[in-house]
Amino acid sequence: MQETSEITADKIFKRSVLAVTAFAAYLTPFLGSAVNLALPSIGKEFNASAIELGWIISSFMLSSAVFLLPFGRLADIAGRKKIFTAGLTLFTLSAILIMFAWNIVSIIVFRVIQGIAGAMIFGTSMAIITSVFPAGERGRALGINVTAVYLGLSTGPVIGGMLTEYFGWRSLFAFLVPFGIAAIILITTRIKKEWADSKGEKFDFAGSLIYGVALFGVMYGFSKLPSPSGWIFLTAGTVLGIFFVFFERNTENPVFDIRLMLRNRIFAFSGIAALIHYSATSAVGFFISLYLQYLKGFNAREAGLIMISYPIAMTLLSPLAGRLSDRHDPGKIASVGMGFTAAGLVVLCFLTPATPISTIVILLTVLGIGFGLFSSPNSNAIMSSVEKRYLGVASGVVGTMRMVGQMFSMGIAMMLISLFIGNRSINPETYSGFISGMKTGFVIFAILSFLGIFASLARNRR
After folding, report:
1. Which one, of 326, 373, 382, 393, lies nearest residue 134 by Cα?
2. pTM
3. Segments making up each domain of the chain, as ranges
4. Is 13-190+255-458 in CATH node 3.30.870.10?
5. pLDDT digit string (tens) for 253-300?
6. How many CB atoms lie within 10 A of CB 299?
């Protein structure tokens, strides 16, 4: 009888953990996909250029990427639940601040704060799931968590488009506040356990600072290319990144144990595959959203309904892919997903102002299938390849690869807009330049996806 009671309590605890992490996982992607559709409205209110609008997206990604790994390591030491809860709180507060933004600069600053909060959430959620669910159940749990992410991406365009259309872009952030508060209440009342497998170890402040500055230099410099300042930041960040690798190899408790990448083939190539996949796909929504609203003449709500096919396919396939990765080689499943992504991007290279909407929906669905098959198995491969005391770091690496990939993707997009349009708004005079930049971006993304297939397959070679 007591054994049955313990089993029931364990199931309830696992469901509570899954519910809280999935709930939190929903918030950020919902906002990201919704903000894409709100960009024209924000640009109109503040008379912002295309590059400034791009920074509304990029500022969040940049700050998240810089802080993800340090927060993942800090969570291993101080407690994953503690960092996770603080992230939810800061995310909710930043949403309130953006509601009262008075110009484009204030929005970008508050999005930086929101990105730091996102790093605290992303750097701990997968580590918490991996701490609670054993190997045979982990893929399914991660699949459900990824499904929540894709559900956010699915509902973001629809709900976000309607809110923007009828209540203005500020309503997007107001909509999130009660959900953030509910998530905070859930984790504080339903989950009493804490996880800190590296408790007592020192936090590597020096390494974290070097890492953050190096990553900022690379990502900011990349976004400013081809200007001279872009090359200066990129070069400085790269040199500092090389120094970081040598510094960490001689540090007792490094923020990132380089040996994980050097000695763990599955961990290394799974991380590289994730970086490539996000680099090849993240700016697609940015381009397509602007394409549908500016060149096709749809409003935000209509564009959101068209774009929903992409995340719906992800949402439906992620749990299945997660379960499959518990029974079969996750690397092979992820590689098939990368192949679908590459195929969809190749066809998008031929997009024109006259392309039928039905064709766009089909192509977005193909990309969604690719993403759905890739993400859960790849995350399962990463999280299952490390010891428990590195789970926070591994979770941070998963999130970092996602954010750095997204930032590189947006960096490519902003660089192309700068080359083909310049610091001007998107209007009939710049439509041809926008189309050329977008198609060039899809060519680059397709090439990256093909390279990603080989990186994904390489993880299991002996």
Report:
1. 326
2. 0.74
3. 13-190+255-458, 204-254
4. no
5. 787 777 777 777 888 888 888 889 889 988 888 899 889 988 888 887
6. 15
**Residue ranges in 328-356 assigned as alpha helix (H):** 330-348
Count the Cβ atoms, other than its own, within 10 Å of residue 261: 16
| Distance linking the first and last C-alpha atoms of the chain | 49
Question: pLDDT tens across 221-243, in order?
Answer: 876 777 788 889 989 999 998 99
CA distance 200 to 318: 37
Token reading at 183? 């998530």
- Which among 260, 310, 325, 364 is positioned nearest to 456, based on CA atoms? 325
What is the rounded CA–CA span in Å between residue 122 and residue 64?
9
What are φ and ψ of residue 101, in 5° steps?
Answer: -60, 140
Q: Structure tokens of 126?
A: 């997968």
Across 64-68, 81-85, 151-155, 179-183, least confident range: 151-155
Contact predicate 104/428, CB 8 Å: no
243 contacts: CB under 8 Å, gap ≥ 6: 210, 214
Identity of residue 139: G
Confidence of residue 329 (pLDDT cuts 50, 70, 90): confident
Phi-psi region of 411 (alpha: psi -120 to 50; beta: other; left: phi over 0): alpha
CB–CB of 31/370 below 8 Å? no
**Cα-atom radius of gyration of the chain, to the nearest Å?**
21
Angle between helix 2-46 and 80-99 (nearest 10): 30
| Residue appearing with tokens 């990029």 | 58
